[in-house]
Amino acid sequence: MSIKTIGLLTSGGDAPGMNAAVRSVTRSAIFNGLRVKAIFRGYRGLVTGEIKEFRTENVSNIIQQGGTILKTARCTEFTTEEGRKIAYENMRKEEIDALVVIGGDGTFTGARMFAREYDVPIVGIPGTIDNDLCGTDSTIGYDTALNTIVDAVDKIRDTASSHERLFFIEVMGRDAGFLALNSALAAGAEAAIIPERKTHEEQLEELIKNGFRKSKNSSIVLVAESPKTGGAQALAERMHEAHPEYDVRVTILGHLQRGGRPTAYDRIIASRMGAAAVEALLDGQRNIMVGIVNDKIVYVPFTQAIRDDKPLDPHIVQTLQALSI
Hints:
Layout: E1 5-10, H1 18-31, E2 35-39, H2 42-48, E3 51-54, H3 81-93, E4 98-103, H4 105-118, E5 122-126, H5 142-163, E6 166-171, H6 178-187, E7 191-193, H7 200-212, E8 219-224, H8 231-242, E9 248-252, H9 264-282, E10 288-293, E11 296-301, H10 302-305, H11 314-323
Parallel strand pairs: 1-2, 1-4, 4-5, 5-10, 6-8, 6-9, 7-8
Antiparallel strand pairs: 2-3, 10-11
Protein backbone atom coordinates (compact mmCIF):
# COMPACT_ATOMS: atom_id res chain seq x y z
CA MET A 1 0.00 0.00 0.00
CA SER A 2 1.28 3.45 -0.90
CA ILE A 3 1.42 5.75 2.13
CA LYS A 4 0.49 9.37 1.49
CA THR A 5 -0.70 10.55 4.90
CA ILE A 6 0.61 9.71 8.37
CA GLY A 7 -1.42 10.10 11.54
CA LEU A 8 0.58 11.10 14.61
CA LEU A 9 -0.37 10.85 18.29
CA THR A 10 1.11 10.82 21.80
CA SER A 11 -0.42 8.56 24.41
CA GLY A 12 0.08 7.44 28.00
CA GLY A 13 2.08 9.46 30.49
CA ASP A 14 3.80 12.52 29.07
CA ALA A 15 7.58 12.52 28.85
CA PRO A 16 10.09 15.31 28.12
CA GLY A 17 11.20 14.96 24.51
CA MET A 18 7.83 13.95 23.10
CA ASN A 19 7.57 17.32 21.38
CA ALA A 20 10.97 16.79 19.79
CA ALA A 21 9.65 13.50 18.39
CA VAL A 22 6.46 15.18 17.14
CA ARG A 23 8.60 17.78 15.39
CA SER A 24 10.86 15.15 13.87
CA VAL A 25 8.06 12.96 12.54
CA THR A 26 6.21 15.95 11.09
CA ARG A 27 9.18 17.48 9.30
CA SER A 28 10.64 14.15 8.14
CA ALA A 29 7.28 13.17 6.67
CA ILE A 30 6.86 16.50 4.88
CA PHE A 31 10.45 16.28 3.62
CA ASN A 32 9.54 12.94 2.05
CA GLY A 33 6.42 14.30 0.37
CA LEU A 34 3.88 12.99 2.89
CA ARG A 35 1.04 14.74 4.67
CA VAL A 36 0.78 14.66 8.46
CA LYS A 37 -2.44 14.59 10.46
CA ALA A 38 -1.97 15.37 14.15
CA ILE A 39 -4.31 13.44 16.45
CA PHE A 40 -4.97 15.20 19.74
CA ARG A 41 -5.39 13.49 23.13
CA GLY A 42 -4.06 10.13 22.03
CA TYR A 43 -6.42 7.35 21.07
CA ARG A 44 -9.32 9.38 22.41
CA GLY A 45 -8.75 11.90 19.63
CA LEU A 46 -8.78 9.08 17.09
CA VAL A 47 -12.19 8.03 18.41
CA THR A 48 -13.64 11.55 18.74
CA GLY A 49 -12.09 12.92 15.55
CA GLU A 50 -9.80 15.55 17.10
CA ILE A 51 -7.54 15.60 14.05
CA LYS A 52 -5.76 18.47 12.33
CA GLU A 53 -3.31 18.62 9.46
CA PHE A 54 0.17 19.72 10.55
CA ARG A 55 2.60 21.70 8.47
CA THR A 56 6.19 22.54 9.28
CA GLU A 57 5.24 25.76 11.09
CA ASN A 58 3.00 23.82 13.50
CA VAL A 59 6.09 22.30 15.09
CA SER A 60 8.29 25.39 15.19
CA ASN A 61 9.89 26.22 18.57
CA ILE A 62 8.65 23.10 20.37
CA ILE A 63 11.84 21.02 20.56
CA GLN A 64 12.74 22.61 23.91
CA GLN A 65 9.29 22.24 25.49
CA GLY A 66 8.36 19.55 28.00
CA GLY A 67 5.06 17.69 27.89
CA THR A 68 3.31 17.17 24.56
CA ILE A 69 1.58 19.74 22.38
CA LEU A 70 -0.67 16.93 21.11
CA LYS A 71 -1.93 16.31 24.67
CA THR A 72 -2.58 12.87 26.08
CA ALA A 73 -5.57 11.23 27.74
CA ARG A 74 -6.96 7.88 28.79
CA CYS A 75 -9.46 6.32 26.39
CA THR A 76 -11.66 3.49 27.63
CA GLU A 77 -13.54 3.53 24.31
CA PHE A 78 -10.42 2.41 22.43
CA THR A 79 -10.24 -0.72 24.60
CA THR A 80 -13.52 -1.90 23.05
CA GLU A 81 -14.14 -3.28 19.57
CA GLU A 82 -16.78 -0.62 18.96
CA GLY A 83 -14.39 2.17 19.90
CA ARG A 84 -11.63 0.86 17.65
CA LYS A 85 -14.11 0.57 14.79
CA ILE A 86 -15.01 4.26 15.18
CA ALA A 87 -11.29 5.10 15.31
CA TYR A 88 -10.67 3.22 12.07
CA GLU A 89 -13.62 4.96 10.38
CA ASN A 90 -12.16 8.33 11.41
CA MET A 91 -8.82 7.29 9.93
CA ARG A 92 -10.47 6.49 6.62
CA LYS A 93 -12.43 9.74 6.74
CA GLU A 94 -9.20 11.71 7.24
CA GLU A 95 -7.43 9.61 4.56
CA ILE A 96 -4.78 8.50 7.07
CA ASP A 97 -2.84 5.53 5.72
CA ALA A 98 -0.52 4.78 8.65
CA LEU A 99 0.10 5.79 12.26
CA VAL A 100 3.10 6.85 14.30
CA VAL A 101 2.35 6.49 18.01
CA ILE A 102 4.57 7.90 20.77
CA GLY A 103 4.21 6.38 24.22
CA GLY A 104 4.87 3.38 26.44
CA ASP A 105 3.74 -0.21 26.77
CA GLY A 106 0.04 0.66 27.06
CA THR A 107 0.28 2.72 23.89
CA PHE A 108 1.98 -0.10 22.01
CA THR A 109 -0.43 -2.73 23.33
CA GLY A 110 -3.31 -0.69 21.90
CA ALA A 111 -1.44 -0.16 18.63
CA ARG A 112 -0.73 -3.87 18.27
CA MET A 113 -4.38 -4.75 18.79
CA PHE A 114 -5.58 -2.05 16.35
CA ALA A 115 -3.08 -3.09 13.70
CA ARG A 116 -4.11 -6.73 13.98
CA GLU A 117 -7.82 -5.93 13.61
CA TYR A 118 -7.62 -3.43 10.74
CA ASP A 119 -4.29 -4.14 9.04
CA VAL A 120 -3.06 -0.61 9.74
CA PRO A 121 0.70 0.05 9.39
CA ILE A 122 1.85 1.42 12.74
CA VAL A 123 5.29 2.40 14.02
CA GLY A 124 5.89 3.21 17.69
CA ILE A 125 8.36 5.61 19.28
CA PRO A 126 9.18 4.86 22.94
CA GLY A 127 8.27 7.86 25.08
CA THR A 128 8.22 7.07 28.81
CA ILE A 129 10.35 8.17 31.74
CA ASP A 130 10.26 4.61 33.14
CA ASN A 131 12.64 3.17 30.50
CA ASP A 132 10.79 -0.14 30.83
CA LEU A 133 10.49 -1.10 27.15
CA CYS A 134 12.57 -3.94 25.77
CA GLY A 135 14.63 -3.44 22.62
CA THR A 136 15.95 0.03 23.37
CA ASP A 137 18.71 1.23 25.69
CA SER A 138 16.79 4.39 26.49
CA THR A 139 13.29 5.76 26.07
CA ILE A 140 12.47 9.40 25.39
CA GLY A 141 12.17 11.28 28.69
CA TYR A 142 14.23 8.89 30.79
CA ASP A 143 17.42 10.96 30.73
CA THR A 144 15.57 14.15 31.62
CA ALA A 145 13.78 12.44 34.51
CA LEU A 146 17.10 11.11 35.80
CA ASN A 147 18.57 14.61 35.81
CA THR A 148 15.49 16.00 37.57
CA ILE A 149 15.74 13.35 40.29
CA VAL A 150 19.47 13.89 40.79
CA ASP A 151 18.96 17.64 41.13
CA ALA A 152 16.27 17.06 43.77
CA VAL A 153 18.38 14.52 45.68
CA ASP A 154 21.34 16.91 45.74
CA LYS A 155 19.15 19.48 47.49
CA ILE A 156 17.67 16.96 49.93
CA ARG A 157 21.15 15.72 50.90
CA ASP A 158 21.98 19.19 52.25
CA THR A 159 19.17 18.84 54.78
CA ALA A 160 19.92 15.16 55.46
CA SER A 161 23.51 15.99 56.37
CA SER A 162 22.67 19.06 58.43
CA HIS A 163 20.11 17.21 60.58
CA GLU A 164 21.69 13.72 60.49
CA ARG A 165 18.62 12.17 58.92
CA LEU A 166 17.77 9.12 56.85
CA PHE A 167 15.72 10.10 53.79
CA PHE A 168 13.61 7.71 51.76
CA ILE A 169 13.00 9.37 48.38
CA GLU A 170 10.33 7.80 46.20
CA VAL A 171 10.66 8.00 42.43
CA MET A 172 8.51 6.78 39.56
CA GLY A 173 9.15 3.70 37.48
CA ARG A 174 6.10 1.57 38.18
CA ASP A 175 7.47 -1.99 38.24
CA ALA A 176 10.88 -1.03 36.84
CA GLY A 177 13.81 0.13 38.95
CA PHE A 178 15.84 1.92 36.27
CA LEU A 179 15.11 5.43 37.56
CA ALA A 180 15.71 4.52 41.20
CA LEU A 181 18.91 2.56 40.58
CA ASN A 182 20.63 4.91 38.18
CA SER A 183 19.62 8.10 39.96
CA ALA A 184 20.93 6.56 43.20
CA LEU A 185 24.27 5.92 41.51
CA ALA A 186 24.40 9.40 39.98
CA ALA A 187 23.42 11.17 43.21
CA GLY A 188 25.74 9.19 45.45
CA ALA A 189 22.87 7.64 47.40
CA GLU A 190 23.49 4.84 49.87
CA ALA A 191 20.95 2.43 48.39
CA ALA A 192 18.16 1.89 45.90
CA ILE A 193 15.18 -0.29 46.78
CA ILE A 194 13.85 -1.67 43.53
CA PRO A 195 11.25 -4.27 42.51
CA GLU A 196 13.69 -6.40 40.50
CA ARG A 197 15.76 -7.44 43.52
CA LYS A 198 15.03 -9.26 46.78
CA THR A 199 12.02 -8.46 48.93
CA HIS A 200 11.88 -4.95 50.29
CA GLU A 201 12.33 -6.34 53.82
CA GLU A 202 15.64 -7.94 52.81
CA GLN A 203 16.79 -4.79 51.02
CA LEU A 204 15.92 -2.70 54.07
CA GLU A 205 17.89 -4.98 56.38
CA GLU A 206 20.81 -4.89 53.97
CA LEU A 207 20.74 -1.09 54.09
CA ILE A 208 20.84 -1.06 57.88
CA LYS A 209 23.77 -3.47 58.07
CA ASN A 210 25.89 -2.06 55.28
CA GLY A 211 25.24 1.64 55.37
CA PHE A 212 23.42 3.72 57.92
CA ARG A 213 24.40 1.87 61.09
CA LYS A 214 28.08 1.48 60.26
CA SER A 215 29.64 4.78 59.48
CA LYS A 216 27.16 7.41 58.37
CA ASN A 217 25.22 10.03 60.21
CA SER A 218 22.95 10.62 57.21
CA SER A 219 21.74 8.49 54.34
CA ILE A 220 19.75 8.81 51.14
CA VAL A 221 17.74 5.83 49.86
CA LEU A 222 15.97 5.88 46.50
CA VAL A 223 12.77 3.82 46.41
CA ALA A 224 10.97 2.75 43.23
CA GLU A 225 7.24 3.45 43.36
CA SER A 226 5.87 -0.09 43.18
CA PRO A 227 3.69 -2.49 45.19
CA LYS A 228 6.74 -4.76 45.23
CA THR A 229 8.79 -2.23 47.21
CA GLY A 230 5.94 -1.05 49.42
CA GLY A 231 6.73 2.59 48.64
CA ALA A 232 8.85 5.05 50.59
CA GLN A 233 6.27 5.81 53.27
CA ALA A 234 5.76 2.17 54.24
CA LEU A 235 9.50 1.54 54.32
CA ALA A 236 10.10 4.60 56.48
CA GLU A 237 7.44 3.49 58.94
CA ARG A 238 8.99 0.04 59.16
CA MET A 239 12.42 1.57 59.72
CA HIS A 240 11.09 3.86 62.44
CA GLU A 241 9.43 0.95 64.26
CA ALA A 242 12.58 -1.18 64.13
CA HIS A 243 15.00 1.64 64.88
CA PRO A 244 13.28 4.58 66.61
CA GLU A 245 16.70 6.10 67.30
CA TYR A 246 16.95 7.16 63.64
CA ASP A 247 15.45 10.41 62.37
CA VAL A 248 13.61 9.19 59.28
CA ARG A 249 12.03 11.40 56.62
CA VAL A 250 10.17 10.75 53.35
CA THR A 251 10.08 12.74 50.13
CA ILE A 252 7.86 11.66 47.23
CA LEU A 253 8.95 13.44 44.06
CA GLY A 254 5.80 12.53 42.14
CA HIS A 255 4.96 14.33 38.91
CA LEU A 256 7.88 16.70 39.33
CA GLN A 257 9.83 13.98 37.49
CA ARG A 258 7.72 14.22 34.34
CA GLY A 259 8.18 17.92 33.71
CA GLY A 260 10.88 20.24 32.53
CA ARG A 261 12.82 20.93 29.38
CA PRO A 262 14.23 17.79 27.78
CA THR A 263 17.96 17.24 28.00
CA ALA A 264 20.12 17.36 24.88
CA TYR A 265 20.25 13.56 24.86
CA ASP A 266 16.45 13.22 24.91
CA ARG A 267 16.12 15.79 22.12
CA ILE A 268 18.71 13.94 20.04
CA ILE A 269 17.22 10.45 20.37
CA ALA A 270 13.69 11.81 19.87
CA SER A 271 14.78 13.50 16.64
CA ARG A 272 16.57 10.39 15.42
CA MET A 273 13.70 8.08 16.32
CA GLY A 274 11.12 10.34 14.71
CA ALA A 275 12.97 10.40 11.41
CA ALA A 276 13.56 6.63 11.63
CA ALA A 277 9.83 6.02 12.17
CA VAL A 278 8.97 7.78 8.92
CA GLU A 279 11.73 5.89 7.08
CA ALA A 280 10.39 2.59 8.44
CA LEU A 281 6.90 3.28 7.10
CA LEU A 282 8.28 4.26 3.70
CA ASP A 283 10.26 1.00 3.68
CA GLY A 284 7.08 -0.99 4.24
CA GLN A 285 7.74 -1.90 7.88
CA ARG A 286 4.84 -2.12 10.30
CA ASN A 287 3.89 -3.05 13.85
CA ILE A 288 7.34 -2.20 15.18
CA MET A 289 8.92 0.12 17.71
CA VAL A 290 11.93 2.26 16.89
CA GLY A 291 14.67 1.74 19.45
CA ILE A 292 18.25 2.76 20.03
CA VAL A 293 20.90 0.19 20.99
CA ASN A 294 24.59 1.03 21.29
CA ASP A 295 23.79 4.40 19.69
CA LYS A 296 22.32 2.69 16.58
CA ILE A 297 18.71 2.80 15.44
CA VAL A 298 16.98 -0.58 15.62
CA TYR A 299 13.47 -1.83 14.85
CA VAL A 300 11.74 -4.09 17.36
CA PRO A 301 8.38 -5.90 16.98
CA PHE A 302 5.70 -4.63 19.35
CA THR A 303 5.46 -8.11 20.89
CA GLN A 304 9.10 -7.90 21.96
CA ALA A 305 8.98 -4.26 23.08
CA ILE A 306 6.10 -4.71 25.54
CA ARG A 307 7.46 -7.72 27.38
CA ASP A 308 7.53 -6.97 31.10
CA ASP A 309 10.96 -8.35 31.86
CA LYS A 310 13.47 -5.76 30.66
CA PRO A 311 16.54 -6.72 32.70
CA LEU A 312 18.54 -4.43 34.92
CA ASP A 313 22.30 -4.63 34.68
CA PRO A 314 23.41 -6.42 37.87
CA HIS A 315 26.80 -4.73 37.66
CA ILE A 316 25.13 -1.38 38.36
CA VAL A 317 23.63 -2.85 41.54
CA GLN A 318 27.06 -4.14 42.58
CA THR A 319 28.69 -0.79 41.83
CA LEU A 320 26.14 1.07 43.96
CA GLN A 321 26.75 -1.32 46.85
CA ALA A 322 30.50 -0.91 46.60
CA LEU A 323 30.36 2.88 46.50
CA SER A 324 27.88 3.22 49.40
CA ILE A 325 30.25 2.05 52.14
